[in-house]
Q: What sequence folds into this?
């Protein structure tokens, strides 16, 4: 009974979303303040109803109500409680419900934190978000309702995919979804600006903090996904250019470009049309990502549901969003006033160059991601685009982007003399060349690539030190956003170091070991001491003990497992990792090898600086959080009403 | 000395030139990294390129898996034709006889397929679309020949 209530709440939410999407918007067209005032309560009501529906589904999961088809497919009596709660977003239907829950949550946040905005703007933004919600709610109700019954109810459920039974993965999808959905706010602001017909700098200032928050969530989600792949998939890789990874990377790249373009629009009034276009693009890529993940067109970890009908629905939604917003753009953008003059060498031009490069990189990733799908859809054969393509294209495009971060930060707005700029960059340039040459020439296995990577990192770090010192010499309070920016840029440098060293200096060995055997990697010695059976709550495992020693002293006993979950025949490799600041030691247990003495295939890795990849992401997230704590975005500095 | 207007034009031209160069470079890298998929029947008919990396997919033939340490050999079949595959390394968790598989590699001189990568599936019930496609194709080709007596490809349970 209570489950039907959830379904009913979802239907009501759709009706409310429809009103929220139309009435306030109509109010702005007819100057009806009462209609416009309906936006905020509608947002609150919609959020309440969707939260109710979501709560009911969670309740069904926790109470093992296997008469609900979705719960029966995703959960299991033996599943530990936290994973039961997480199983709500473990599958297609539930994760879409999470999508709309977050969308209504973001909408509510806009409704609550928009006191300073003119009512018409709020009405437009909330209306646009309401229309998006209508699309997704209809999608859920018509093609993927999580409240469908399964009668007679099975005695036990099929269980959550064992790969997803992991703390890191419990929070990865919500984080990524918060990012995906968060860009809808930036999109709604851009569309609202287009609708108002007055494209000025004000909307950019309003949407900046929202964009940064969405970007922060997305960064977190991508980093968590990469970390999860590293320790859970048992291959020790951290980025596979899997289409679903690309689906999250593309809006992130656009979002990064958008954050910087919005800064120019806010501060200098330039790039208005470009910012709007980036906002539309970022959200469209989020929808494309949802389509790629949820339509089942992909061969991937994430492609659980295969249902062409669902794919077509999202594709139509995507076409509507892109089509309508671009039409609006074509109609209104020519009215956008140009900002002040931009010199050829200026902070604006450097930021523009970088955002164009980010867009080109996105286009390259997009090409590699969807080309196989298009060819397949046209029945022209089956093919795939391998990781070498993405590496070959992405790295050369990112090198200039990272290079330009330093002059972009140092250069003045409007115009900077090239000679003066070059003069300011002397110190970082010397540091970069010295570091790069040292790494290339004086490390074992050093290559020009590892030299270039370290040179870039040194360039960025010394570059931002120069900027900070210059700033400290000037009077005046330093805004948190200044530190936020440098923290995020430092994060980039840290990630560059991580990638450079793990790519250039990692050691991987696939070996065959029996008890007592040893293998040496770098300065470490690994000895297999035992393989025993271990019991988990809902699985049985084969657990190996590997003693790791350095200079004759045992520093760690690693216990990789090969798990077998009761609910499925699916074995799972659980790698054991010794984390360190400068290196990770990674051991995975493979299959037993038939023959005389018992032997196991083992995978032993030495991964230098790999944790810096995620450390850099943490710095970027902190940087984002710092910059939104800026007072500009809060009370007391209300921008002029547009 | 150049006028500012000329200088600006020069910069813009340089920018466009750089973008075009990036485009050429991207498409070039793209072209050389496309990996095509062939079914065991297509490989048998000699359609697969020699000396070039491609993918082959289908079912792992029951009883065909042989392991000698890290050296693995198995047969990929679409129930019409078979391709012997060799691979060195640890197989993915979900690799099993009688289940779908996709392998990437090159034809070896002995006529077999030397895989450099055996692609992991992530769910026991999940069938790689390429492998399913190969089975469907072979089944269709067979039913054309033997009128009706089609061995139904073992479709993975949904």
A:
């Amino acid at each position: 009974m209570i489950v039907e209530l959830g379904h009913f709440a979802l239907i009501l939410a759709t009706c409310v979303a429809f009103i929220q999407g139309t009435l306030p918007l109509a109010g702005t067209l007819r100057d009806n303040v009462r209609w416009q005032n309906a936006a905020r309560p509608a947002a609150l009501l919609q959020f309440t109803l969707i939260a109710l529906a979501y709560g009911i589904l969670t309740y069904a999961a926790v109470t093992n109500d296997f008469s609900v088809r979705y719960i029966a497919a995703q959960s299991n009596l033996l599943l530990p409680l936290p994973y039961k709660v997480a199983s709500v977003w473990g599958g297609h239907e539930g994760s879409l419900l999470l999508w709309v829950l977050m969308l209504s949550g973001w909408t509510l946040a806009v409704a609550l934190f928009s006191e300073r905005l003119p009512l018409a703007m709020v009405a437009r933004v909330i209306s646009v978000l309401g229309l998006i919600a209508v699309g997704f709610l209809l999608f859920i109700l018509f093609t993927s309702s999580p409240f469908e019954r399964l009668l007679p109810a099975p005695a036990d459920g099929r269980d959550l995919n064992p790969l997803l039974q992991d703390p890191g993965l419990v929070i990865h999808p919500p984080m990524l979804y918060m990012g995906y959905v968060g860009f809808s706010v930036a999109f709604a602001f851009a569309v609202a600006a287009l609708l108002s017909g007055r494209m000025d700098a004000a909307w950019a200032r309003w949407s900046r903090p929202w964009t940064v928050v969405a970007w922060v969530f997305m960064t977190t989600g991508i980093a968590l996904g990469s970390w999860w792949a590293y320790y859970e998939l048992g291959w020790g890789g951290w980025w596979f250019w899997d289409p679903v990874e690309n689906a999250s990377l593309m809006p992130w790249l656009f979002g990064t470009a958008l954050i910087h373009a919005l800064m120019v629009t806010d501060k200098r009034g330039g790039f208005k049309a470009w910012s709007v276009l980036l906002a539309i693009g970022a959200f469209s890529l989020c929808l494309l990502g949802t389509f790629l993940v949820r339509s089942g067109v992909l061969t991937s970890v994430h492609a659980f549901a295969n249902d062409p009908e669902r794919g077509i629905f999202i594709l139509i939604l995507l076409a509507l969003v892109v089509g309508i917003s671009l039409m609006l753009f074509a109609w209104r953008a020519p009215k956008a006033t140009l900002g002040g003059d931009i010199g050829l060498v200026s902070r604006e031009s450097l930021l523009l160059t970088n955002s164009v490069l980010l867009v080109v990189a996105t286009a390259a990733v997009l090409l590699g991601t969807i080309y196989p799908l298009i060819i397949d859809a046209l029945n022209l054969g089956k093919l795939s685009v391998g990781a070498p393509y993405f590496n070959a294209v992405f790295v050369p495009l990112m090198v200039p982007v990272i290079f330009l971060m330093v002059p972009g930060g140092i250069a003045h707005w409007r115009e900077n003399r090239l000679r003066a700029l070059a003069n300011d960059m002397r110190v970082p340039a010397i540091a970069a060349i010295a570091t790069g040459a040292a790494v290339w020439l004086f490390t074992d296995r050093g290559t020009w690539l590892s030299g270039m990577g370290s040179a870039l990192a040194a360039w960025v770090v010394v570059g931002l030190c120069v900027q900070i010192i210059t700033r400290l010499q000037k009077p005046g309070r330093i805004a948190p956003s200044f530190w936020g920016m440098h923290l995020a840029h430092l994060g980039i440098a840290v990630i560059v170091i991580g990638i450079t060293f793990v790519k250039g200096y990692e050691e991987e060995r696939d070996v065959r070991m029996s008890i007592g055997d040893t293998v040496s990697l770098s300065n470490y010695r690994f000895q297999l001491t035992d393989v025993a059976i271990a019991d988990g709550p809902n699985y049985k495992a084969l657990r190996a003990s590997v003693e790791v020693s350095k200079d004759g002293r045992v520093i760690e006993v690693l216990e990789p497992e090969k798990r077998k979950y009761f609910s499925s025949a699916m074995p799972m490799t659980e790698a054991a990792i010794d984390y360190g600041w400068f290196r990770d030691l990674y051991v995975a247990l493979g299959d037993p090898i038939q023959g005389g003495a018992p032997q196991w295939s083992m995978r032993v890795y030495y991964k230098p600086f790999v944790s810096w990849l995620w450390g850099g992401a943490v710095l970027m997230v902190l940087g984002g959080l710092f910059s939104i704590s800026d007072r500009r975005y809060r009370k007391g500095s209300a921008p002029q009403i547009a | 000395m150049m006028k500012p207007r000329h200088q600006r034009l020069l910069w813009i031209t340089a920018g466009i030139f750089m973008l075009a160069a990036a485009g050429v470079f991207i498409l070039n890298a793209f072209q050389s990294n496309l990996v095509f998929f062939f079914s065991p029947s297509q490989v048998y008919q000699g359609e697969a390129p020699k000396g070039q990396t491609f993918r082959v997919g289908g079912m792992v033939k029951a009883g065909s898996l042989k392991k000698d340490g890290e050296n693995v050999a198995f047969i990929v079949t679409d129930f019409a034709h078979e391709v012997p595959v060799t691979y060195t390394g640890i197989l993915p968790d979900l690799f099993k006889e009688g289940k779908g598989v996709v392998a990437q590699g090159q034809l070896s001189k002995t006529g077999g397929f030397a895989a450099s990568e055996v692609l992991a599936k992530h769910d026991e019930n999940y069938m790689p679309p390429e492998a399913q496609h190969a089975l469907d194709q072979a089944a269709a080709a067979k039913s054309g020949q033997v009128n009706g007596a089609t061995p139904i490809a073992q479709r993975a349970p949904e």
Remarks:
- Chain A touches chain B through 47 residues (CB under 8 Å).
